[in-house]
Amino acid sequence: MAKFIVEKSQPLSGEVEISGAKNAVLPIMAAALLTADPCEIFEVPALRDVDVMRGLLEYFGSTVESDASGKRLLIRTGAIQTCEAPYELVTKMRASILALGPLLARTGEARIALPGGCAIGERPIDLHLKGFEMMGAKIKQTHGYIEASAPELKGARIYLDLPSVGATENLIMCAALAKGNTILDNAAKEPEIVDLANFLNKMGARVKGAGTDTIRIEGVPSLHGARHTVIPDRIETGTFMVAAAITKGRILIRNVVSDHVKPVIAKLLECGVHIEDGDEGLLVAADDRELLPTDIKTLPYPGFPTDMQPQLMALLTTVNGPSVVTETVFENRFMHVSELNRMGADIRIEGRSASIPGGKRLQGAKVICTDLRAGAAMVLAGMAAEGRTEVSEIYHIERGYTFLAEKFRSLGASITRIDDKD
Ligand code: EPZ
Questions:
Q1: Under a CB-based contact definition with an 8 Å cutoff, are residues 406 and 8 in contact?
Q2: Which domains does the chain have, with CATH numbers?
Q3: Which of 19, 22, 23 to mutate to test ligand 1, by most ligand atoms within 8 A of the CB atom?
C-alpha cells in the first residue's frame, strides 16, 4: 500500500491551479447516460473516482474517449447494453448510485448493487428511492441489489426530509425525462447541483431553481448532446487555503469561484488569516500572523461544508486557544481525531462535537487516512508537525484529489510518495 512521507514544511508559497470538481464531474458523467448523442466535458479532474465512473459508463455500453491530458472526455451512449451495475463496480465508489436515476429515465429499469456505508457514516439512499417511487417507479431490494422499474415516469412533488446532495442530483436527472412536472422541496443547494442543472439544460432539459431549496423540472421527451466545462473544486480550494494557514505561508490559488468557498473564507478570516479575492485568484496568507481559534459547525450548503471539517480541525489544533468543531451532516466523521491525537492534538469528542484545546506543537507520527478528506487533513497536520509523518492508505486521497502531492511540492512542501512492498 502506498503512503506519503511528510516532513515539517517551510511556509508554503507560490501559485496553484485548482482542478475540476470531483463532486460535479461525477453526476455530470452519469447525466450523459440520458442521451444517445455525444457529450463533451472539459476540465475533468484526474481522479480514481473519475476512472471508476468511466468504467461504469463503459459497462453500461457508453464509449468514453479522453484527450492526452485526460481533462476532456467525449461520452457517447448510443444504446444501453445493460441496466445492471454490479457489486464489484459499485463498492469501488458510492457515487455509482448516481447512475440509477439516468438509467431509470433512459430505459425504465435499473439494477444497482447497494452502495453500502463507508467510514464516515451509514450513507442510506432511502430519499433517492422514495423520490423514484413517487415518480411511479417500482423499487425492490433483493440480494443486496436495488431493482427499479418504471414503464412510465410521471412528474411528482417530492419533499426531501434532508437536503441530500445525491438524492437531489438523482431525482433531477430522473425527472428530466419524466412526463409532466416535478418539484423537489427542501432540495440540496450545493454548487455541484447548479453545475449539473446547467449541463442538463444545455442538453435540452428544463430545470429551474437549482441552487435554491425548491427545484422545478419540466420533463421533456428526449435530451441531446452538449459541451460543458466543470466548475472548480471548492473543497480542493479550501484545502489549499488551509495549507497556506497551517504552514504560515502565502499562496495564490487560481481557477477558483470564491462564492463557493464563502464559509471557508469567513472561518479563516476569523482565525486571522489574510485573504484577498482578486482577478488573479484567491491570495491566502498567514506569513506574519498569530492565528486565533474559532468554532465550526458543519451544515448543508451554504453552511460550512462537512468536506472541509477535517482540514480545519488540523489547523485549529495549532492555533492559540480552544475551538469546538460540531459535525451535523455525517454521524461518524471524527475518525481523524484519533489520528490527530497520535500527533499530540489532545482533542476530546463529546457527542457530535470535538473540543480542540489548540496551542499544540504537533509531533510527526505514523497515521492513516480514514477517508478522503481526513487523509488531506493528515497531510496538512504533517506539514506543521515537528519531524516526520507517515500517512498510509493514501488511496483515499488519490480517489479525490488531483496530483495533491505534486501540487504541494510545487509550493515548497516536503512530501514524497512511497509504495510499501507489503
Ligand atoms: C455528497 O455525498 C458528496 N459526494 C460528499 O462528498 C459530501 O460530503 C456530501 O454530499 C455532503 O455534502 C459526492 O457528491 C460524490 P448526502 P452524498 O446525500 O450525496 C443522509 C467527499 O469527500 N442521507 O447529502 O452521499 C446521509 O446519511 C464526499 O467528496 C439519508 O439519510 O451526501 C448524510 O447523513 C464525502 N438518506 C446526509 O444525508 C438519503 O437517501 C447527507 O448526505 C441520502 C442521504
A1: no
A2: 2-19+232-419 (3.65.10.10), 22-229 (3.65.10.10)
A3: 23
